[in-house]
Amino acid sequence: LNGEIVPESEGKVSIRDRGFVYGDAVFDTTRTFGGRIFKLQQHLDRLFDSLKYMRIDPGMSKERITDLTMQVLDANLPLLDDGDDYWVTQRFTRGVPRADGPPEPTMIIECTPLPFDARARYYRDGLPVITPSVKRTPPEAMSPRAKMHNYINTVLADLEVKGQNPDAW
Question: Which end of the chain is more exposed for a tag (fewer CB within 10 A), N or C?
Fold first, then answer.
């Protein structure tokens, strides 16, 4: 969190952070294979494209974010069971508004275990799919190439689908 490794339970983001209040944030996610991160530089290139689109200055270089990402991953790898892997995500919000100038961005780098056990049955048995009535934001309104925290329509779509079949996607 903001350059420091802290346990998830101690990570704190202000209730006034624009990422929380407005969804004013970007992210990118890659994963590990056998504990090794996959195409980190390409994912960070996309993260920086999203930051530029949203006009968020991360306040640090891509090299610094690479180093911090690897530190977070290295700190979390001992927590994985054999055969498990992580999603590794970098998130930047515009930060907390300040009276004396622009906000400083909030940065979160996190590792989340991949849900292999929960999804194994979909590989074995197939995946039930339902097309919901909720639409995505059209590309005329917002670029689908930028990875932003604009997923409320997918949350609503998923709720609609789960209301019809709890196992469906």
Answer: C
